[in-house]
Amino acid sequence: MLRRTLTVLATTAALALSTNVAFAQNKVLKFVSWQKDERGVGDWWASVIKAFEEAHPGVKIEWTKVERGAYADTMTTLFAGGNPPDIVHLASFEFQKFADNGWLEPLDPYIKDSKLDLINWAGQDTCVWNKQTVCTMMLYFGYFLAYNEDLLKKEGLSVPKTYAEFLEAAKKTTKDLNGDGIIDQYGTGHETRGGGGQYISEMMNYTLDAGGRWTDENGKVTINTPQMIEGLSRWKTIVKNNLTPRDMSAGEVRQLFADGKIALKMDGPWLWPIIQKGKAKDQIKTAMVPFNPPVGGSSNILAIPTDISKDNKKLVWDFIKIATSDPFQSTYATLGASPPPSPRADIKAAKAENPNFDLLVEATQAAAKAKVDRIPKGLEIQFNEFSKMVMEEAQRMIIQDLDPKAVAATMQQKAEALQQQ
Amino acid sequence: MKPRFSLDLARPSRRHWLGYLLLAPAVLLIGLIIIYPLIVSVDISFQNVNIARLDQPRRPFTTANYERLFASGDFWNASWVTLKLIVIVSLFCFVIGLATALLVNNKFKGRTFARLLVALPWAMPEVIAVVIFAWMFDSSFGLMNWVFIKLGFIDTTINWFSSPAAAFAVVCITMIWKGYPFVSIMMLAGLQSIPEDFYNAARVDGANAWQRLVNITIPSLMPVLGVTLVLVMLWVFRDFSIIYVMTGGGPLKATQSLSIMTYEQAFGFFKMGYASAIGVVTLIICVIASRLMIGRAPDNI
């Protein structure tokens, strides 16, 4: 069934793009991505490539996987060497450096010529850099709550709906089950090791609910507000009291949750496929996060490099048109198991396949409505440095048991200094 | 007809030309893959550049990167961390490496297997070794916490990678485990080159095992020790993967060495001019330290 759907989609795309066939003989377009072998979303990219190649006889896409950990280095090296991939796939927190260097083609003329409708396209605002659209957003997500029903029931707890209830549930479900002095079961799970980007996403569960934001709408740093101080206090409470396993990567925490060793987990749509392969699959249920608004944000983008030939730019735009077309946005929902950014995507099939799909859509919409993004306005270019600084100061707060108010003041000062660089 | 140009390499005065000709491809290759990037790196370090591109016009000359570097607390912290790592890791690598070399230099049953065991960590890829150690020292479910609690050394788990001192210790232990076999192999090679006559003569003179070690073994090993020390020091200096995979330089920059700092500035923050300045300073420190050690080595023999 899926194969037939994809064939129909490919044929549609072929017809729609047949005008471009003439100039595109025996070409190879390079496409580098970290999502190549990812189940679901990787299959979706493969279907887009297949449709593109069928629509452009003689043009092949050379698809190469680069691990996420080495991605920024590899892409920087490729661009700096004047040899960028034709189809540019970047995370939404890293494309700004490339755009700022003038390495990404402004897409506004292409959008205008092809009449691509990006109105209400989730997260598309993030793609506007220096008043020009330099990319198309491929995913905007919102966090949902997954909970282990058995673990909550054993403690006589219901699904938490506020931070206070969440804290109580996390405390009661954090346990040393066999009395050996080592905690075997945790109330919740956060990544506390690894990159700054993921670390601040985890913190934002608490800072957003407390009403805090890193910066305001004008890009002014607002870390020393009472709301942010409250958010930092909450984060300190969770980590300092070992209500989350320490020093674990995001992947390890997700696996622990899927295996029934964590009671409550806030995460994005990618958690669902992991749950399905875990030992506690049947005990895990989902709900809206007990925080308002949920963490959300843009994820990854497609762009065209300025350094390639005019013909190749046209071909890459065709590729983007296929990826952003209504039929492929609909299959994104089913294959990628995530709400697609397009407001016109048909998500009926995804809803039928995934019982949580409505929840994912609701979480995404709630985050989008509150204009939540991991990348603070006014700190886009300095995001890596900013997130590293926040992570270090938060770690210092926990390790040295510092007052969150003093930590917020330090973060404020350092963030302002970064903005002025 | 007389040829216009001939290269008679058989002539005694031109015999050395052949040597130069044969060396030329290697020299050119080295120039291309080592010298050229080095020159580019030094050049970039004197420019205010974020992401460097060779096809773009050169930015104005500036010493701002170096001024910022020497005024930066992070740089001095990274230098201090690097120095601590060099001293601790090199010292333990030498003690363990020499001890294991002396052990497997003796004749005993299963010596070949023992030699294999000693060399095993050296053969293991760094990343795999790091993953194993990271699992052993995992704060929540790691082996070491369990062992220490069972033995009664601690009553609550240690957050190995959330404590600056503990994280530094774990990095040192991993580096020592990975680095001592190299010393051991070099020492073993050195030990086998010491003539047995020296020891026989010492025994005749009544020297005990300790005196033979101090007066014959160690002095005879000095040339090998000097070279090994330089190589181990340079390895610790430039090692990146162990620290990066294990701690990423954290927590609170407790394990951030100069190589980690260089990488972070270049590919984390895209400040390649500044990162090049750190790289150049690191190179100068390495050259000076190596020269001092190599230069002193003959005096110790």
Molecular structure report:
Chain A: Belongs to the bacterial solute-binding protein 1 family. Chain A: Pfam families: SBP_bac_1. Chain A: Residues 1-24 form the signal peptide. Chain A: Its main location: periplasm. The complex is a heterodimer of chains A (421) and B (301). Chain A has 2 domains: 2-140 and 298-359, Periplasmic binding protein-like II (D-Maltodextrin-Binding Protein, domain 2, 3-Layer(aba) Sandwich); 142-297 and 374-420, D-Maltodextrin-Binding Protein, domain 2, CATH 3.40.190. Chain A is an alpha+beta fold. In chain A, helix 2 crosses helix 12 (310-323) and helix 9 (226-240) packs across helix 17. Chain A has helices at 2-16, 41-55, 71-80, 95-100, 108-114, 149-154, 163-173, 196-209, 226-240, 250-258, 271-276, 310-323, 326-335, 348-353, 357-369, 383-399, 404-420, and strands at residues 27-33, 59-65, 88-91, 128-129, 132-133, 136-137, 140-142, 144-148, 186-188, 262-267, 284-287, 296-298, 300-303. Chain B is flat, with a radius of gyration of 25 Å. Chain B is built from 12 helices and no strands. Chain B starts with 14 loop residues before the first helix and ends with a helix. Chain B has a single domain, classed as Orthogonal Bundle (MetI-like fold). In chain B, 33% of the residues are buried. Helices cover 72% and strands 0% of the residues of chain B. Classes of the chains: A alpha+beta (421), B mainly alpha (301). Chains A and B meet through helix 3 and helix 16 of A and helix 6 and helix 11 of B.
